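This week, think about what follows.
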Amino acid sequence: MKIKEQAQTDGLDIQPNREHKSSVFSMLFSNPDILRELYSAIEGVNLPPDIPINVNTLSNALIKGKLNDVSFIIDNRLVVLIEHQSTLNENMPLRILEYIEKVYKKTIDYANAYNEKLIKIPKPEFIVLYNGEKPYPEKGELRLSDAFMDIEGLARDKDRISLELVVQVYNINHGHNPEIQQKCGTLNNYSFFINKIREYQRTGLTLAKSIECAIRYCIENNILKDFLKEHGSQVGSLLFYEYDFDTHMKVIREEGLEEGIEIGEHRGEQKNQKYVLGLIAQGLTAEEIKQRLENK
């Protein structure tokens, strides 16, 4: 059964949009006061309410078809906050490397970079909140240098890394990192809400029905009540798409690979299969891959 048909059967008005530019995570945590509370909890500090927060999230810039990030500047720090609902992507430092350039271009006058005088820029911090079902420690780290090829090959390279990007990863599943969740009630309630969806799924309910039941339960029990009452329908639609994303991407990969191989065989080009796999890794849809191959 197709995504839209299944959702409508379960009573949710789902309109899947593979290029949607929002998420439940970004909707909830784009509020400056909530961001201040969350950042203070993660960093273990108490930021006064008069410290301004400038939210500058880029539209659909990080993950094609799925964007769960919030970018903001606070106390001369440029923070990129990302949620992961499935398996942690170890390529996130590489993706952020591209993303941070776009954020800086949005927040500073890049023309000044060609002047001799040093321009000051906010210190970057990269934080991933892991919300997947696979086991993960309370806190971890992803480094761009982990992807470097053969850095041990030459002795002089061992202690010299010219480019590094470090991502701090926190497990925010319900029951994990209790100190952070206790200090940020919104994060704790959000984790409870996501966990409630999974609880309903384990009883045999469909994803759409589980989301619907979790929304109703949380409203009745004063968990994200105002947020869910105001945005309940949109939350249901976005969560349905977000949590079906992995299945959706698997279908795209299979369709794209199948079409790519078919076109490649027709042309007698064995190298097409490798080319298609590269396009899939970039997140292109089956139709986009097909167009690339036909114009190749």
Summary: The two ends are 34 Å apart (CA to CA). The beta strands are 53-55, 69-74, 77-84, 123-130, 139-143, 166-171.
